[in-house]
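Re: the pair you flagged

First of the two:
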Amino acid sequence: MAVVNTPLITVIVPIYNVENYLKKCLNSIINQQYKKLEILLIDDGSTDLSGKIADEYAAKDNRIKVVHKENGGLSDARNYGLKIMTGEYVTFIDSDDYVTEDYISFMFNLLKQTNFTAPLAICSLINVYGNSGRQKDNGNQTEKVLSGKKCIEMMCYHNLVDTCAYAKLGKKELYSNDFFPKGKLFEDIGSTYKLLLQCDKVACGFIGKYYYVIRPNSIVTAKFSNKKLDLLEMTDQMAQSVVAAHPDLKNAVLRRQVYARFSTLNQTLNTKNVKDTQLKLIKYIKTNKKAILNRKAPKRDRLAYYLLCLGLPFYRYAWSRYEQHKGES
């Protein structure tokens, strides 16, 4: 069967109270070089002007369809988009982010270069630090075709492959019903590995095409609550599934599990009445230190571990200095 040169590609944008960011996001989508798009704006019960802005854009561009639904969370909005999409391929863009004008065409061409034998393409993020406006391309400017297994290993070591749902272009068939775990934070770590497990080939372009805006009070940067422990559940679930399919990736997924504990610990550092949680996290890190002291783990893992061994007060101070530097330099 002949491959269609320009298949319909669905763009799913979950929207919730992002009136200050939404226009920049939507402008970057409607101005894509790849024109044959179905743009699904899923308004997840916004209480600001986001829904109105979405409707205004739909009135100007017949590729845009808006759905206004009761608030169900990010996963629920993405899943809703998957249920109603009609495209052959799908990509996700979060409504407070934006993309380069060749975001979709770049990934589509990666698939084309494999003669469409790869069902998934990925690109890199460009971090945009909200306070300073500083940008950082997370890619290394290379293109290659990798196995899904290799991508999982790289993801576990934070080596170019990201866990995020966005910055990917995949065949619709890769996404099962209720693909994203509803009601969970950090749903990306609980879902992206499922894509990679299905892929013999992944077309990778490690070049920044997706602007990831790091802003105060987002899910990732908001203050600690027990809901943040979802990260541990999602990561452990990923680890169990990956090891069942690829037992030789046990060390890689354990590194990601230890990282999840470090990430959660960092979010508790300025929170009161979390000593028991902190002690459990530190115990897990120290018990599994081999996972972050091996040569494949990022150097920052080893540095963080040695700082933690000097005591939590010292670690807290060092982390605050790092955070301050990361956003301003």
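Second of the two:
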Amino acid sequence: MKKLVFLFVCMFSITMVKADNEKPIDVKQLPAKAQTFVSTYFKDQKVALVKEESGFFYKNYDVVFVSGEKVEFDKSGNWTEIQCKQSEVPAQAIPEAICNYVKTNYPDAKIVEIEKDSHGYEIKLSNRLEIKFNTKLQVIDIDD
């Protein structure tokens, strides 16, 4: 029994060590879709760091620009989060319905962060409001 417990503890420890691997990579090592996104929407930004994070069941990438802006991508190169605290998220990268909602209801605010997952989108505005949208791009929550 002690050997079985020891074996389990060893395997769990190895899993925990291996589960969170981060390493710096070159922009050219990003998935093609992520490279295109960066060169299209952040072409005037200088890249400070590109990082790959991987585990047993996932892989994602972070691109940090000298300006402090940041984009996160999934293993396929689809963006999952864009942070533009010094400027604003490029409008072309945001679903049109979200842009229209913000223009209509908060015309003086900029979208400084957007995150997407299987449940929908969450945006942060320059006026500090946080708005959640479901997958049908309907507002489901507003936090200040």
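The chain is about 25% helix and 35% strand.

-B.
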